[in-house]
Amino acid sequence: MVVVCVSGGKGGTGKSTIACCLAVLLSRMKFSVLLVDADIENPVDHLVLGISRELRSEISSFLPEIDSSKCIGCLKCVLSCPEHALIGLKGSVPKLMEELCNGCGVCKLVCPRGAIVEKQRMVARVWVGEKNGINYIACELLPGVKQAHAVTEIFLKSIEEQLRSYNFAIIDTIPGAGSSVYSCIKRSNVVIAVTEPTPLGAHDLDLLLQLCERIDRKVITVLNRADLPGSGKDYVLATVDKFKHIVIGYVEIPYLSEVVKYYSKSDVLTLLEKLQPFKQPLEKLAELLIEISRKV
Hints:
single chain; Alpha-Beta Plaits; 26% strand; elongated
């Protein structure tokens, strides 16, 4: 069992495409594969692979409700709310701006009269599907909900047993290097850090590798669209060298305009069959993961 975290310091690096293609290649090699779309603000893996999703469950979180018969208008809840979702005047019952509430529950903890009771509101949906031997599960945050990290953690906790029951579990993370990405990486055996040959790509790769370094995770770096003219490839290579004590592999994928055509048609199978310059580095990446699986 190997849990692989596919992440990128910024959006648009090709992280989801690579996660999906790896799932296809490993499944073709007769490994059991679970593809986890944890990019909860924009889950697209089902579109890339043409998977028909089914709703499995819903995720709810804390929402405060103030009992006006107990409230004394002390405003402790208002002053303690980190998102300023509660407003009010001294001596009055505070009002909740629900769209700002992040469900942290601080207001309930500080209320001296027990005037805040817990309600629940739905914040995300969990979807499942299957295609070509790939089992798929995803979490999708509802529009306007500001609880990405909390929901990511709830979602991943709910599937921890599933992660351990496959030869390979591939987690496609949210972009960046924040707490939601940390929730994914801490459950992984290895991280695939996808970047692009630009100064910004190198900068965000640096942030992601710092996170991996702090929690002692080994990394395979993937430089996507590596041969773009006038690119900042040297910036990326310098960053990789800076973290060579945790980087155990480096793979370059060339820029191919045809990738967009097959990607937009949800035709990853044809993409892998017809574009050998794209497929070969991904096969190398798959072999690195298989080698890691033999040591776990």
